[in-house]
Amino acid sequence: MKPLSKWQNAVFVFGAVLMVVGAASSIVHWSYYAYVFSLGAVCYAVVQMMQRYEGNNFVVRRLLRIQVLSDLLLLLTGVLMIANEGNSFGLEWLNYVNYVQNNWVVTLLLAAILQLYTTFRISKELEKEAKKL
């Protein structure tokens, strides 16, 4: 995989830190936690989607597609966090409680598990590929 440039790496780390701060500050009900997380998710996802793989390994390509799905889940988490601040979708109260309220935790958990899995598997597959060469 093509390595990240310095600015891409800085934006990537900045986005990851903002996501952690946003998710952690939701515990203390800081009013801007959803926006901090969303900004971090956008930075993180954009840089991760900019990474390119020029090889022919099918497994790595599949793992990168899973990583894109995880990025989309992170962005959906940001949208659900913002909607969690109030009834942004204009739903009836019962529907809002059933479908929106605090469901961002589920999408965040799924995204984190997929990120963790793909990160370790991609590094192992790239090591295998490097040994073959």
Give me the secondary-structure topology:
Elements: H1 6-25, H2 33-50, H3 58-84, H4 93-99, H5 104-132
What do these coordinates show?
With 133 residues, the chain is mainly α. The protein contains 5 helices and no strands. The longest helix is centred in the last third of the chain and has 29 residues, at 104-132. The model has no long low-confidence stretch (mean pLDDT 90).
Short recap of the structure:
This protein is mostly helical.
The helix tally amounts to 5
Question: Which structural class best describes the helix and strand composition?
Answer: mainly alpha
Order of helices and strands: HHHHH
Name the average pLDDT. 90
Q: Rough shape?
A: elongated
Number of E-state strands:
0
Strand content: under 5%
Radius of gyration: 17 Å
Please summarize the sheet with the most strands: none
Q: State the distance separating the first and last CA atoms.
A: 14 Å
List segments where confidence is low: pLDDT < 50 over at least 5 consecutive residues. Answer: none
- Helix amount: over 70%
